[in-house]
Design goal:
Pfam families: DUF1328. It comes from Vreelandella neptunia. It is a single-pass membrane protein. The chain is built from two helices and no strands. By secondary structure, the chain is mainly alpha-helical. It is rod-shaped. The longest helix is centred in the last third of the chain and has 30 residues.
Length: 52
């Protein structure tokens, strides 16, 4: 999942440099959502893993 966030971030940077602002905005939004989801799942798995 973190790999997908990095992939969309790279797509957003390349699209922004080329001038595709719509694609860059969409890709950066997807990257942000995936990154936040990854962090939340990491924290949940860290908390539940300590209880075992």
């Amino acid at each position: 999942m973190l790999g997908n966030a990095v992939l969309f971030l790279i797509i957003a940077i390349i699209a922004g440099a080329v001038g595709f602002s719509g694609i860059a905005g969409a890709a950066s939004t997807i990257a942000q959502i995936l990154f936040v989801l990854f962090v939340v799942l990491f924290i949940v798995s860290f908390i539940t893993g300590r209880r075992r």
